[in-house]
Structures are given as C-alpha cells and as structure tokens.
Amino acid sequence: MADTKELISSLDSKIGLLIEKVKTCSAALQAKNREVEQLKKQVTVLENQTVELRSENQQLKSAPVFKEEVLAVEEDTEETKVRISELVKEIDTCISMLKL
Hints:
By secondary structure, this protein is mainly α. The chain has helices spanning 2-62, 64-99. It folds into two domains: 1-62; 64-100. The mean pLDDT is 87.
C-alpha cells in the first residue's frame, strides 16, 4: 500500500512537471508563430517594394530622357578626353620650348 502511494505520488509529480513543460513549450510555440507571422508580413512588404522598384527601374531605363542623358554624358566624356589630350600635348610643347 505504501509502495502504491509512493508510486502514485511519484507519477503525480512527474505528470505535474510534464504539464509545466507542455505549457512552457506551448507558450514558446505561440511566440514563434507570432514571430513567423511578422516575418511573413515583412517578406510580403519587401516583395511588394521589390516589384515596385523593378517597375520604376524599367520605366526609367526605357524613358527617352534617360537615354538622351546617357548619350550626352558619353559624348561629354569623349570630348573631355580629347580636350585633355590636346592640353597635355600643348603643355609638353611648352615644356620642350622652355628647355631650349
């Protein structure tokens, strides 16, 4: 009889510990589920922003003004390179004249 009471008491305490662990795990699971939902919302927002930015980027690339500006910058770059080259030649000429 005493062994049965001890066994029941031991089982009762172990069941109490298991119930506490289940509650703890359940609370942790709920917290993780909330975190997952928040992260899913963030992913959705970021995916929407990505789509919008890609669309805007495509519009800017196809805009005639953008193409004209790029061409103008490329032309300005070439003109600048040519002008610098001319100035370097002129400076070299001046230096050689000074040496004489």
